[in-house]
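Board notes (copied after class):
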Amino acid sequence: MMWKFNSLRHRELPLSKDSSNLFLKIMISISVFLFAVTLAGVLSINSMLINWNSSILGSLTVQIIPSSNPDKQKAKDETILQEERAVNMLKAMPEALKVTSLNDEQLQKLLRPWLGDDVEIEDLPMPRLIDVRLKPGAEINFKVLAEKLANIAPLASLDNHKLWLNKLINFAAGLKMLALSVLLLVICVTSGAIFYTTQTSLGLHRDVIEILHLMGAKDTYIAQQYAARTAVLGLIGGVIGVVLAIPAIFLIAHLAGQIEGGIINEARLSFKAWAMILSLPLFSALVATQTAYYTVKRTLERMM
């Protein structure tokens, strides 16, 4: 009897003909699509937060307000003089890694998106900007620094980016937590769909399962058949979902790249991030397999 059972082991449960197969395949495809797009968002936000912390929070900007002298040349000379004093003082700071004074071309490039191409920027009283990169872990008393700058260069204004950027970082972190909640919800919904379709299939094939038990089949063997069937559905659905998600991710990235200002441009997907996204079919197959296996085991323990 055991020989007969082993020779027919691949044909006992007609799972390939279940009407729920198409439903599960579509359900998993949609879930993986949503998961991939949301995961790309989470990884992009995480990349953006890391870049902000390293590039913006690790720096400060000093602005030299243009002199109000009615003589344009004297006003420019006075502004440049105060800029040089501020640069020398900042370079002497032990916390400063690099001090860079922006030239006229760089300033014009920064202002042109705000003022437009029709404005002759050269004729305007241009502020001077000094970019200061800080050493990793540097702690600065900004109040004291602002007072020192005011004594040396009264037209200098200090901006450490921290106040406004902290609010932006908190907002991005909130979006990240929301996206992670969506990922968890997608996994739960998909697992729930697999759970209920598997239970329905067990009910439909109850007579066959009872016969298999009489022939010596264990619950583990039946669970393995369901797990194998669901793994294939999970893999196929996962591949379809990822294939559909990749163009959507590139479209969202293209739309985000059109935003002026460069803040969103800090969100990038690394090679590791793409590897995680492309491995989602394996993840969906694993989730589907485990859910189906333990659903069958638990259900059969109550049925038989």
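Comment from the instructor: The beta strands are 59-64, 96-101, 128-134, 156-159. The radius of gyration is 32 Å.
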